[in-house]
Amino acid sequence: MLERRVRGKYPAACALIAILAFQSSAGIAAAVDRIRLAVPDVGGQFITFPLAQARGFLKQEGIEAEIILIRGNAALAAVAGGDVDYTVGIPQGVRGALLGMPLKIVACFEPSSTLMLLALPKVKSVGELRGKTIAVGAAGGAPTRIARVILKHFNLNPDKEVNFLSIGAAQARVALMKQGLADAAMVPPPFDFEGKKLGYAVLARTHEVLSFPQSGLTLHAQRLREKPDEIKRMIRAGIKANQFIRSNREGSIKFLSQWQRANAEIAGATYDSIWRVYGADGSIPMDGLNLVVQDTRELLESRRDVALSDLVDLSALRQAHAELGIKAK
What we know:
The chain has 329 residues and is of the alpha/beta class. It has helices spanning 13-22, 25-31, 48-54, 57-60, 72-81, 90-98, 142-153, 170-178, 191-197, 206-209, 221-226, 228-247, 249-259, 264-274, 286-300, 308-311, 315-324, and strands at residues 4-7, 33-39, 63-69, 86-89, 103-110, 116-119, 133-136, 163-166, 184-187, 201-205, 215-220. The chain is built from 17 helices and eleven strands.
């Protein structure tokens, strides 16, 4: 279930000795909360907490995190079973809630998606995709779901007016375009950069069209009752990380190069596509979250509904805002 673990950096021995000179070991233990956090992959849409780890924002908040790469339903099972303490996936949290799991969303760090609709040169607008083929990911995955929402936004019926071709990796979707088997594809950055070299154009970027929250902080309701101060500090670290992403291009590109094992050119292109998507203060866009709920209900063919007030808890976010001097929305 645990696909890969990315363990945080521990202080150097000399730094630890310096700390021990001023504090007892018991005091240190009490000051640090050790948590496990699930992140779906190393894509540019999930870098808030990995960057918070690398830049020391989690450590500043007294949190030692083990970041685990784990996807979809496995992340839900891990949170529900207590194998991890948090997951960043908001759509996964909504899915779990609709399936009856006691989950809460307490912050949103990516109010929309970095995915974009890339098209062949002959296609000039989303409307011109009528009757054409779009390469997407697996059925029920984010590329497919968001493509459907975007098409509806532009008054196209995704069930009747376009053809979807499901294939896993984004590279494979672009390959289908090269072969003339698809007219467009839903892809993440940096495929806008790579596509431009081939003469392809971006018809729509999700974050410029609609709010569809992707990354935040989702947890079991029991943790909300047991660890409210820890949750607040997690949110503070996430806000600091997002502010860094939005204001420090050079530092963010350096992190992306390491996190994604990408060269500077690709990391730079990725950053230029994603930084605007990251929210400045962790606020949850309720209109966008409601869209995710309705889309997930449709995907699950579920009659169960969940009120946003039951899905969201803003208490820790409000405390974090107050302590950081952020004006509440």
